[in-house]
Amino acid sequence: MDPSVSTYVRGFHDIDAVLKMKYKPLGNTGLQISQLGYGGSGLAGVFKTTKDDESIAVLTQSIKKGINYIDTAPWYGNGKSETILGQAFKNIPRESFYVATKVGRYEPDVEKMFDFSRERTMRSIDESLQRMGLDYVDIIQVHDMEFAPNLDIILNETLPALQEIKDSGKARFIGITGYPLENFRTIIEKSQVKIDTVLSYCRGCMFDSSIQDYIPYFKEKGIGILNASPIGMGLLCEAGPPKWHPAKNQIKENCQKAAKYCKDNNVDMAQLAVKHSLELPEVASTITSSESSDIVDKNLKLLSTSLTDKERNIYNYVMKRFMEPLHKMNWEGIEVNQYREKLAKLQDR
């Protein structure tokens, strides 16, 4: 018998893999999305150099094995992620996946990095659809709201523009994303536009479980919850974070010590981190970005298997010794302040 999930396409999917996948409701959208989602940032080489043909192969294989939720943005490689998705989508049935992209964050150039205006927002969705070769996206999201000059711009320009985009048929649902969690509540309470989803990153992982404090509120509002970067943008893996990572030194040090402890005991810390996030209640999908088919397969296996006794013991020790002392420590404001300082300097020239 075919899997019941609506994105299953006979002849395209690996039926056994799809049957093993867990699908969860995304708030009140009616979408049933894979508990493990695919993050498009890696396609643009955000974390390491990638080859386009290999990235396309990994993405295609991920969808065939039941991952049906893809998250991307123009910001990822200045459109490269969406462009690669467009190449891959030529050989993937449209009904087999849901795709979300974003507006508001664009180029590495500080002066051109953010633009939450209505005009740029309306142009952005057309650019994204063209790059991906699609007529519509399933979710259109405001990217990193905290970088706007103020949240009133999000409320009065960006979100109304997204409603226009939705009304035009170019998107089905509207979402908001960002790092500071309280911004979600502020926008949801004040917005005249219905918010369907929220996406946070590094707030539902081993060193910071703050998203759980907001889950009852999101659930009450019927909003779908997406949790990105379970390995903390590289903090929770043996290789460690990229140089640009904004985390405070104590977070980096504790994570490095935890990674070393795991390595010394022949346990993959990244796998512990992904398993930790997958077990969070009420989260519709945990989004990971990987350019490796081996890592995708390992992550998929976590959905249907338990940690070994040794892995569980290592996990418990790591949480108590290295993660719990951080007590939801975060880097709220650090990136925003750095951005605004750079912008001010450029404008003062």
From TrEMBL:
Segments forming domain NADP-dependent oxidoreductase: 36-312
Taxonomic path: Eukaryota, Metazoa, Spiralia, Lophotrochozoa, Mollusca
GO molecular function list: L-galactose dehydrogenase activity
CC annotations in GO: cytosol
Name of this chain's protein: NADP-dependent oxidoreductase domain-containing protein
SUPFAM superfamilies, per database record: NAD(P)-linked oxidoreductase (SSF51430)
Cross-referenced InterPro entries: AKR (IPR020471), LGALDH-like (IPR044479), NAD(P)_OxRdtase_dom_sf (IPR036812), NADP_OxRdtase_dom (IPR023210)
PANTHER family on file: GH17980P-RELATED
